[in-house]
Amino acid sequence: MDFIGEDFLLRSGSARRLYHYYAKPEPILDFHSHLSPRDVAEDRSFHDLFEIWLEGDHYKWRAMRANGIGERFCTGEAPRYEKYLAWARTVPATLRNPLYHWTHLELKRYFGLGQLLDETTAKKVWDSANLQLRRSDLSARGILKKFNVRVLCTVDDPCDELNHHRTIGSSGQDFTVLPTFRPDKAFLVASPQDFNAWVNRLESASGLSIASLHNFLDALKRRHDHFHANGGRLSDHGLNHCFALPCGEQQASSIFSKARAGRSATKEETEQFSSYLLLFFSRLDADKGWTKQLHLGTRRSVNTRMVGETGPDAGFDSIGDWPQVASFCSYLDRLEQERSLPKTIVYNSNPADNYAIATAIGSFQEGPIAGKLQFGSGWWFLDQKEAIEWQLNALSHTGLLSHFIGMLTDSRSFMSFPRHEYFRRILCNLIGEEMESGELPNDEVLLGSLVRNICYANAQRYLNLAVEHPETSTEPAGSAPAKADE
Length: 486
Prior knowledge:
Blueprint: H1 13-23, E1 28-33, H2 37-41, H3 49-54, H4 58-66, H5 80-90, H6 98-111, H7 122-132, H8 140-146, E2 149-156, H9 163-169, E3 176-181, H10 192-206, H11 213-229, E4 234-239, H12 249-260, H13 267-288, E5 291-296, E6 298-299, H14 304-310, E7 318-319, H15 325-337, E8 343-348, H16 354-362, E9 373-375, H17 385-398, H18 418-437, H19 444-463
Parallel strand pairs: 1-2, 2-3, 3-4, 4-5, 5-8, 8-9
Antiparallel strand pairs: 6-7
Helix pairs in contact: 1-18, 1-19, 10-11, 12-13, 16-17, 17-18
């Protein structure tokens, strides 16, 4: 029997019914992904399992290092197949790590391979997967269609011209790929070399000379307008914590000029400038009806020796313990006073902050938008079963799960779309068990509608994306079996 069976993670009859008849048929709206729009525009084909599955996956690298595998097999120069074999040798050591689930779920859904991956099965899996990668449904576009992805939102620098998005948009596909405005490099005044290199790019992209803070903000607004004209309706920031130090225009201008002159901003100046910019970007989002995403709470690049050798985003990050609540509430309150608070999704990487962030969000909800502020799905170190349940519980117990906009991949790999299935199974299991224990009513239509909305419809309504979606009734998608536990 395959490890990943039809009822994987579904421990009750109610859970199984909710998943198979309500969650599984729903399409995917992946509103935060690091996939390459170029790959989709060019309909990239993948030459082997390493290229589609292992290239750039820092989750796997962390596990391999913990298993005693040398760096040459992670980020180094070892041949592709040797890197893959090193991963296959590691997989049995990942029992109870989410990687064990993800690995076998992905092999099953992409290639129909049900055997456990280890050193003895590695060659057979490699050969079978590589042969199947020649199929048209496993190219970049084929995968989006195979997994019924209606919308994919990529993460894009404000200087990007978005040519690939336009190519996709004019190609008559059944899916939509939209850009997300992520201006993280605009905050780099503590590193003037990096900051000025990026500002020079911004000059070229915007067509404006940038000699002052006023020019800088004008150029950023022009790029924000460009994204809007190309379908962008979301922005995103990756922050250690939410910035909220008071900073007026004159002070921000002085800090900007200092960085442009090649002098590093102090820690306090960096936070002041970041606070000023964060409010500026939020006002742009609110004016256009966009949704802002805040990724909070991660401490990046903690192993400086290895980061120096491999570069960033190679698996040397951790959960941070930044004070979050005071500055986060101050940021929201300042915008609320101005009536400039946009729709906002907050992703938290430290579970100790779950209830604090969820309750802070609840203080700024306002009609007519249901769930205007969202406590986003489990992120980074928290996108596994236990922490997904923590997030669902914190949201349910302090707010309204019924308006939650669900899961995303946050991935750079085209093999990651089963993350949506993983989330849906966990969601259905949680709700199904409470139906059977009597904590929730044994009303399949009521709870099935909740599940269906979380899987797709809530996100489609909330993000206000022009995406066609077939009308769905309140009845299950298909003929459901009797309610008895199979």
